[in-house]
Specification:
The chain is 45% helix and 9% strand. The protein is an alpha/beta fold and 275 residues long.
């Protein structure tokens, strides 16, 4: 039986660290690295993918969906994706992955897929294929590698973190609905043109009766008002202060080293996009 080894790169730290880890610990495996590109990714993601390719010494295959975000938005009656209806994950991430593997599975080949779920993420599960020939491996969980271990792997490899971690805590589409309020405010700071595009999508969706906005409980028009932005930033700083007050004193720890998952809790996220 022919055998393939595949590893999905999201543009985030965990999957990048797993790619580095597998190259270092299992160099005998001919791993195929892939990235499912929605066309709505942050520019920092593409920059980091280039750096990662340089370290791996091989290209990361781009899997593009047959239909883009705009097509599927119309198919779903202009309703925005949301935590309740994650059609973006299904149509733009999972389907291209399944289509890529389908010929191999039809030939009876065995496929080993390596997923970057860490040892400290007991609440997460990997992609469930329903195919006996597609086996999911969780190397970080098996090796006891946690969030701190992931950062150590990337820094030791000379890669560091993707640049968007300065202002955002995870990868995913530019206007991912899982963003915190402060991350929407920072998207406006970092990529105002992308924020305006998200506002246009939201306005169109609301005009067509969508019950969802990108950010829970308010539109981006409301969120981007100066007084509201100021309130969001104040609330975030207060959360940071409370978190630091509960931490043991450490001169090496600053507010910049605290990511939003620590401040707001990781919650239940999309494993396909946010690794």
């Amino acid at each position: 039986m022919n055998e393939r080894h595949v590893l999905g790169i999201s543009g985030g730290r965990d999957s990048a660290a797993l790619a580095v880890y597998m190259r270092q610990t299992a160099p005998e495996l001919d791993i195929e690295y892939f990235f499912t590109d929605t066309g709505k990714e942050l520019p920092e993601v593409y920059e980091f993918l280039g750096r990662l390719e340089g370290f791996l010494g091989k290209p990361i295959l781009r899997l593009n969906p047959d239909r883009d975000f705009d097509f599927w938005l119309q198919e779903y009656k202009n309703f925005l994706p949301s935590p309740q209806t994650r059609w973006c994950t299904r149509q733009l991430k999972i389907k291209p992955f399944e289509a890529w593997l389908k010929p191999s599975l039809a030939r009876g080949e065995r496929i080993n897929s390596y997923v970057a779920i860490r040892a400290d993420e007991d609440y997460r599960e990997g992609y469930i294929s329903g195919q006996e020939s597609l086996k999911i491996h969780l190397p970080f969980r098996a090796a006891g590698i946690d969030k701190a271990g992931v950062s150590e792997i990337l820094h030791a490899a000379g890669l560091g973190l993707p640049d968007y971690y300065r202002w955002r805590s995870r990868s995913g589409c530019t206007f991912c609905f899982y963003q915190q309020k402060i991350e929407w405010a920072r998207l406006l700071d970092e990529h105002p043109e992308a924020f305006e595009e998200a506002k246009r999508y939201e306005k169109n969706a609301l005009e067509h009766g969508s019950p969802f906005t990108w950010s829970h409980g308010e539109s981006l028009v409301e969120l981007s008002r100066p007084e509201r932005l100021a309130q969001i930033r104040r609330d975030h700083e207060k959360r940071i202060e409370r978190l630091r007050a509960r931490r043991p004193i450490n001169a090496l720890t600053s507010a910049d080293s605290i990511d939003n998952d620590e401040v707001y809790g990781a919650g239940k996220l999309c494993i396909t996009c946010h690794k």
